[in-house]
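Researcher: Before we compare anything, I want clean individual predictions. No alignment, no superposition, just each chain on its own. First chain goes here; please echo the sequence and then give the structure tokens.
Model: Echoing the first chain and its structure:
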Amino acid sequence: MIHRTARRCAVLGSPIGHSLSPALHRAAYAEVGLDWTYDACEVREEDLARFLDSLDQRWRGLSLTMPLKRSVVPLVDELSERAAQAQAANTLIMEAGRRVGHNTDIPGAARAIAAKVPAPVGRAVILGGGATATSTLLALADLGCSAVTLVVRDAARAAEAVAAAGRHPDPPDVDVSGFDATPVDADLLVSTIPATAQGALAVPWAEHVPAIFDVIYDPWPTPLAMLATARGMTLVSGLELLVNQAADQFTLMTGIVEAPVQAMREAGERVLAQRRPQNRAGA
């Protein structure tokens, strides 16, 4: 069902000022002629339940980013199959007083990887163990990846990702490692850690792969992205993940199957270009 009546949507998280989601979704609305609004709302974990309870019938959908993807799970009436698999939802659809949680990070990550990494990914390394790492792990399983190494500071932080992998119908073998362990050879390195933490932690793991997928999109380029570019490695950007998962969110929220992906990507690229240091004269 296509929803044409003006509705409200937003992205929630903390911090939220960097989010490109408003630019992407607003560009999509303009492209298809929807008179909808999409805002960015600063919402902490402890305030999420109260915020959701305050929403009226004008609200249709929410995008969820750090640190809300897992904390929203007990606050919904229903989880989609993929959100239940990950036990994380980055999308909330509201209709007739019900909240349904979805996970568009999984198919979004799978499409982003498949578009840039045509060769099969047999083994992958994922830096980090949070909700995005979990969704990317499931995306890799969708693509036929058979072995994944999760690299985390504390093994306990990987427990939920390992459990999620076990819920996949074709689960990969997952092992957990520390950042100080000897890096392993792999077909793809996925980084879900902040750009500021990449330096000494991430670079050694990039020595043993031909391709890097960095889920960060701002600041860009990250240290890993610059390394990949300098060495001629295959690079999948966080913007590609953002655009692909946002396209699925757009469809879930509006009912319009063909999301205007190119308009969304171009909107994100324009904002990122404006944010780059060389374009901030006088800032």
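Researcher: Okay. Second chain, same rules.
Model: Second chain and its structure:
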Amino acid sequence: MNKTLRNVGIIGTGSYVPEEIRPNSYFEKVGSTDEWIYKTLGIKERHIAGADEATSDLAAKAGLKAIADANLTVDDIDLIIVATATPDRPAPATACFVQDKIKAYNAAAFDMLAVCAGFMYGMSIATQYIATSTYNNVLVIGADTFSRITDWERRDSVFFGDGAGAAVLSHTDDDTGFLGFKIRSDGRGKYGFTIPGGGSENPMSHEVIEKRLQYWHMDGQAVYKSATTVVPKVIREVLEETGLKPEDVDCVIPHQPSKNMLKTIFKDVGIPWEKVQTNMDKYANTSGGTVAIMLDETNQAGKLKKGDIVLFAAIGSGWTWSSAILKWSK
């Protein structure tokens, strides 16, 4: 049976970060400085989950805020998608923990993994379900506790923090909503950012722990080269697909890898830096949470008005990357 595709927009946002703040001065013991971190990455501090906080705790708090912002109840949610690289457990899905914690028992729930691009991938999945009338209200959450998989004895431990952001996607009855979506991946870059130990390829063992392979490992130059190559390209693709030009974009909500990387990307695309929203100074890179937290802060600050053209962009391990254009409908 043929169905008319529905427009899909964002009707609510929310975010949560843990209380503990870890400033740049913490990293002097591993040979870094506040001056270098801020000048190079744009980071001043990051939030760290408490011993009693799992990824699902952060995700649940962000999710409830998004549902309230959408003027819905948990019973209205049909599906919960949690984008995370740091699940509570290998099984069951963190989304099931979230479902139970917010008591959204009418919803189906599953996780998906695209690391820093995860929230974007999650929104692309939600859009398909809603456009085809399979579901009406989908809660997409990006959440990570990278402090659990960071080797704090290494100099590159400065990059990440913990946090969660969420959005409720639903159908819209006017001409607003997502205008275009592109997701891409290239498995040839799978070792540019990886966690070598703890999976089925290299199960947890005394050797894995001794070699500290349970923590993330990153080739910073490879990340920078890939991001500044593929992200401008995918942004141009989604602009062309929607018949828009860089000057038509009102606001940019990007993943938060580093300020220098973002400046390079958007200079290449031709979008003024003033339109690019950043918060890595407060949170560092929260991986799956980055785009969602930035979206919520921009929304709650009243920077978005109905009809604004919003550009999203992110790159994650894999490599995975994505860009989307949304005509704001809230």
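Researcher: What stands out in the second chain?
Model: Residues 122 and 189 are 21 Å apart (CA to CA). Additionally, The longest helix spans residues 220-242.
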